[in-house]
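Q: Structure for this?
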Amino acid sequence: MRRWRSSSLTVRTTIASVTLGIVVAAVAVGLLSAVFAARAAAHREVRAQDLTSATLDVQGLVVDLETGLRGLAITGDTRFLEPWVKARAALPSHLQSFKRLAATEPRQASRARELAGLITAYIEDYSAPLVAIARDQPAAASTPVATAEGKRRIDAIRSRFTTILGQEQSLADRSAADADRQSRRAVIVAIVGLTALSAIVVLFAIYIARSIARPVRQVAGEAQRLAAGDVIVGLTEMGPGEVGELTRAFNSMARQLEARRRELEAQNEQLRDSEHAKSELVSIVSHELRTPLTSMLGFTSLLTRGDLDEEARQRYLEIIAGQGQRLATLLDDFLSVQQLEDGRLELRNDQVELAALLRQQTELYSAHSEAHEIALELEDASLPVVGDEGRLAQVVGNLLSNAIKYSPDGGRVTVVAEHVDGHVLVRVHDEGIGIPDKEQARVFTKFFRGDAAARGIAGSGLGLAFARAVVEAHGGRMDFTSAEGQGTTFEIELPDASAAQSPAQAGSERSNA
Amino acid sequence: MRGFPVVVAAGIVAAAVAGGSSVLFASTGPATVRITAEKEQITSVDTGAKGTSPGDVQVVRQTLYNRHITDKPIGHSEFVCTVTAGRSRLCSGTFFLPKGKLMVSGPLRYRQFYELAIVGGTELYDNAQGSLTITRLSVDPPRSLALFRLVG
């Protein structure tokens, strides 16, 4: 059974065809055998009838011989001899035919030979001499002795006729019965054979439909679904040999197509994101560049007019210089982020006291806004890290700047720093507008600003991307928690310089890896 | 007496003559044997009144053939017939055959067709019984058929 299940479609089809052929051959042989047997029986019956007819012909001629001889012997009138003469002339050919017909059956052939011998002897040894005697001496031909001899011979001949006819009748009856039986057998064989063949053909068709057509239909249906772009769950791998291989190959192809489709979708998503980021970049850069440029162009145009006093001229030049500095800073940030991402930005590897750096930055940004209270809470007096002090100051500055900008109504900004498990952890918490859930996944994306522009919040969208890139370059990590309308907390974790090797070094190695 | 119907039957001997193979006799059961008698020699002894009259004797000798087996003679027969009345005769005869003799006896009226009893035999044909039917096949040359029907 296992071998059958694992056999190929070709082998199965061949076996089924050979089986069908054997059954057809067996039915044909049975049918032909029955037909031939019926035909042979019919031939035997016909031969028996022919032999019976020939026997009766000969018997009639013998009767003519006897009748003619008796008429002559009794009356002495040669006219009575006419049937005897005709019968004697006709007998040789009839006996020949009679013996030929009887020759096909050995016992009847023997009887026929014996009968022919008796008839010949009757003619040559008795009848013909007696005719001659009757012509010469009629009284001698009609003696009781002659009559008794004739009767004796005729009785013997008649006995043989009776035997032969009885045998032939019996043979004819048997042949007829045999022919009838063989005909019935042929009909039965034909009916049974055709029924068996029909059953086999139906079974074969069912087998083909179940084992081949159904899986192939399933594959075709799934192929159409696949062509229509539906997701293929997978075919049940069934069917004999090649059909099973077909379903397996189809499943494999479907899986590969599905994987390729997902890959393409991911690539498309990336491309869309990339295109979107590019559009955003172009828009932001255009906007960020246009704003100071417009300002610079406007004031430059004013300067070209000759009716400005010295004070106004000086103020305009300062504005132009400020806007130029803004442009330079923007380009510098952009280049820095790009260099960090490409691993091309070189960071210093110095001992940095993060506590001092935090104090310096909180003091600096406290002066930027009177509406905000910036509080620094240091759990430890010393928070040494290894890295680039300038870049780390930029990171902290960005976080504080964001905390102020995204708390437009003012409020408290809390900076907490402490040692945690061999790291220095810094948290910057504000009570601002928070980050909507749907925007949180893109907070670190370059130039992403959500609806900040709509709210009138200035910025390039590069600050957080830059900050995380710098922190990760120092072997640290950066993350945040936020709830819309309730504020945001950013946290930075940097390796503790007192506990391990140079974090900047480790970060650099990791970036390079 | 020429024409006296002495037809000698000697059929039993056919097989014996042909080589001594199976011969059909009393001990072998019913059988029919056919031989021919030819070359008739008749000697007549006229006693009493002149011409054929009761008491006349005819001695007949014939040569025996079985041409189904051989063209050579297989023996001869000798008959003595005594006229009893008119055409009636009482005959006794012996068939001399290579392996014994067969004796027949009986009355006859027409020489063309008559029947005799097989009354015995010698040597190989000891205790033979049955009937002998003689049929004249031709007159010139004289030739008769002897058909022995042995029984018992």
